[in-house]
């Protein structure tokens, strides 16, 4: 982990010293090297729960896939942003890349630390770079309002988490995750449990805690949307899994039944909201809320199937949602609008686009044998085993998810081309590579799903 951190710091220094005409190339090469080094973490013994163990840093089967996902998507998001930032000044381009690298550094520490206090600091360290990405490089003037929503939702929900972690330390004199795995503390206070998990429910987010997400996604630049959807939202699910050991007794007795039922019905309502959206990025953002609600319900059941399913859903959804935002940005750069009906008919100009949209729409709705289907099957099985009453919201959620996923494909890739949607440029090599680098890990996980399970 120290090696990865030093490589990221070296990449930041390199971005400050590199000449103008080699900034993007150097940054992509550096982040790709970080990705290849992160693959080494998969070389640990699979029979060992924790590996690469140090004083405050360690990896296990939960954190390793998330670290590799972070290292995979940062260079892809930088690559997707080249065209939209090419007209900016050199200092602005430098700042953009450095902020992305700072987010990656914070993510590495978030997913690898074994100390809950360090986890909280790294968890909050992503706030400022993401806020700057939204407010400085956002699409429209509403980006300032979106920044306020993102900032205050995160800060208000994080204060109870900090109070809860301090209380845990004074009660247990220990905040080590590994110790909690082997000897779970008998924390039975529902109030303390609620204080600690609310920050993760807002970060994921689940229904009713989600109002900041569509605004942040719609106004963020393409890299901000990709990082938000693919990685930053997964920090909430990861934190919820880690704290589940601390609050096992309280969650099982008092809070899990409420969370499971609330998340299942919230997933349905968010899917209904998706059917009413006319903005492409807003629809993809609400889709993330729907998927993450069912994922949190799976974790709240407390079973091994539920937790394993949540990890698979987080990784698969991270890849798919990032790809959907990248595809939406390709449309936006050519037509200047994200309205669904205005963007229809572009298949006549871009022959590969319908294939990519179909692949990721099918992945988004959970079509076998894609990894999304594996995760959702395990998750729904875990929820139904917990309570058969959840059958109706799960079945309804599956239907609505299929409807809006296929609606995106049908609207954008059918119909006649209109004069306002004629594009002046075709699908270039950079954009082709960006989408292919999302499709490649999906195909790898179809062949070897045990990489994340």
UniProtKB/TrEMBL annotation:
What is the main EC category here?
translocase
Where in or outside the cell it occurs: the entry states: Mitochondrion membrane
Query: What's any one GO cellular component for it?
Result: mitochondrial membrane
GO molecular function list? NADH dehydrogenase (ubiquinone) activity; NADH dehydrogenase activity; ubiquinone binding
Q: Where are the transmembrane segments?
A: 23-42, 62-82, 94-111, 117-134, 146-170, 190-213, 225-249, 255-276, 283-301, 307-328, 349-368, 388-412
Q: What is its EC number?
A: 7.1.1.2
Q: Name one GO biological process term.
A: ATP synthesis coupled electron transport
Q: What does the UniProt function comment say about this protein?
A: Core subunit of the mitochondrial membrane respiratory chain NADH dehydrogenase (Complex I) which catalyzes electron transfer from NADH through the respiratory chain, using ubiquinone as an electron acceptor. Essential for the catalytic activity and assembly of complex I.
Similarity-based family: Belongs to the complex I subunit 4 family.
Name of this chain's protein? NADH-ubiquinone oxidoreductase chain 4
Q: Give the lineage.
A: Eukaryota, Metazoa, Echinodermata, Eleutherozoa, Asterozoa
Q: Which gene encodes it?
A: ND4
